[in-house]
């Protein structure tokens, strides 16, 4: 069984949990004790042909623990499909001698992950508001708002890619793209002509 699946199996055994921090602490304790490949090794001195070298151990599987935690948002009561809380189990949690108690390290990681999500949500909110303002005069059937959300979230996409993503004809996608260009929300990128979102100009 792969590292991420083993981490997920152990986490599932602790759910549902009323105290996320306590559940994560117990989960990490189990991984550190029973799944040695999650631990971060240190370094050792190796003598080769009369010379001393530092040899560092291979990295542990902290990435797999972070992936498992992100796949179980119900741990934090976030529902079935929220924005993922990424990076909940940094490598520092799996050091042989952690610099701080596990609950303190976890609380810091949770705070950082929540801060990242808050930044993302603020960006999404501003993006939606900007699109609503610029595209308010379009017909309700226009695909431009949906196209704006796609390129804002995913980055530049060609009109063919946008047509497939939206389930519309290339002609309809081209019409929506022109509407975004007219609203000064997007521009065609030179070369592949992918529709690229324009960054909002900051007031000086």
Could you explain the architecture of this structure?
The protein is mainly alpha-helical. The chain has 2 domains: 3-39 and 58-118; 135-197, Arc Repressor Mutant, subunit A (Orthogonal Bundle), CATH 1.10.10.10. It contains 7 helices and 4 strands; from the N terminus they run ααββαααααββ. It has a two-stranded antiparallel ribbon. The chain has a two-stranded antiparallel sheet with strand order 3-4. Strand 1 and strand 2 form a beta hairpin. The longest helix has 33 residues, at 102-134. The chain is elongated, with a radius of gyration of 24 Å. The model has no long low-confidence stretch (mean pLDDT 87).
Topology:
Layout: H1 3-12, H2 20-34, E1 43-48, E2 51-56, H3 62-70, H4 102-134, H5 144-154, H6 159-166, H7 170-182, E3 186-188, E4 195-197
Antiparallel strand pairs: 1-2, 3-4
Helix pairs in contact: 1-3, 2-4, 4-5, 5-7, 6-7
Quick synopsis:
This protein is mainly alpha-helical. It has 2 domains: 3-39 and 58-118; 135-197, Winged helix-like DNA-binding domain superfamily/Winged helix DNA-binding domain (Arc Repressor Mutant, subunit A), CATH 1.10.10. The protein is built from 7 helices and 4 strands; from the N terminus they run H-H-E-E-H-H-H-H-H-E-E.
Notable features of this structure?
204 residues; mainly alpha; Arc Repressor Mutant, subunit A; two-stranded antiparallel sheet; 7 helices; 4 strands; 49% helix
């Amino acid at each position: 069984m792969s590292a991420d699946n083993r981490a997920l199996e152990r986490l599932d055994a602790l759910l549902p949990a009323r105290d996320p921090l306590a559940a994560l602490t117990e989960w990490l304790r189990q991984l550190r004790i029973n799944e040695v490949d999650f631990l971060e090794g240190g370094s050792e001195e190796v003598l080769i042909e009369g010379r001393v070298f530092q040899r560092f151990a291979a990295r542990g599987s902290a990435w797999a623990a972070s992936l498992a935690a992100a796949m179980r948002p119900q741990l934090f009561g976030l529902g079935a499909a929220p924005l993922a809380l990424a990076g909940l189990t940094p490598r520092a949690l799996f050091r042989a001698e952690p610099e701080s108690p596990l609950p303190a390290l976890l609380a810091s990681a949770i705070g950082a992950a929540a801060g990242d999500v808050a930044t993302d949500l603020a960006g999404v909110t501003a993006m939606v508001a900007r699109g609503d303002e610029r595209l308010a005069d379009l017909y309700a059937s226009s695909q431009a708002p949906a196209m704006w959300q796609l390129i804002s979230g995913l980055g530049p996409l060609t009109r063919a890619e946008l047509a497939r993503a939206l389930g519309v004809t290339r002609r309809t996608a081209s019409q929506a793209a022109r509407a975004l260009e007219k609203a000064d929300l997007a521009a065609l990128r030179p070369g592949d002509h992918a529709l690229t979102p324009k960054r909002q100009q900051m007031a000086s």
